[in-house]
Design goal:
Length: about 160
């Protein structure tokens, strides 16, 4: 179940999260992440939320494009021209939000072949959570699981 008021609380805790991620005990946090990730996803059902699919785009790397096009039985060029655009970093991303592969029931119609970024999101069981502070802070305002993990890390650090 998604905690009520988590978005507001996350916005209020951005400075505390930033300090934690930049100055906290990184080894201690890294060791805790797998368990905290599992605990968060025992409480959060992504199908109740889908904020990530509604508001952001993963990067579609060439292997992702190839795999998805094959799955959809269309040409790679058609997948790109119909759904993707190059961003300022030179990565393919969806043209419009929400993601064109998001169904009305919050399921994904390419789930089994989804991009690597989607498989890994919200990176709460990876060192990305600590290494890419700006991304983690952004994710904490979009993903309730990220919020829960950061709140638990704060408790772990005694904040």
């Amino acid at each position: 179940m998604i905690p009520e008021g988590w978005e507001k609380e996350s916005k209020e805790h951005q400075k505390v999260y930033k300090r934690l991620l930049e100055k906290g005990d990184k080894n201690k946090m890294l060791k805790a992440l797998p368990v905290l990730h599992e605990e968060a996803f025992e409480k959060i059902n992504c199908l109740d939320c889908a904020n990530c699919c509604r508001n952001y785009s993963p990067r579609f790397k060439q292997p992702d494009i190839k795999r998805i096009a094959k799955h959809l039985k269309i040409k790679e060029g058609d997948l790109v021209s119909q759904n993707l655009v190059l961003d300022k970093e030179g990565d393919y991303v969806v043209k419009h939000s929400p993601c064109p592969f998001l169904n009305t029931d919050n399921t994904c119609n390419i789930y089994d072949v989804r991009p690597s970024d989607c498989r890994r999101y919200p990176y709460t069981d990876e060192d990305v959570l600590i290494k890419r502070v700006a991304l983690t802070l952004k994710n904490s305002t979009v993903c309730p699981a990220t919020f829960l993990v950061l709140e638990q890390l704060l408790k772990l650090e005694g904040k």
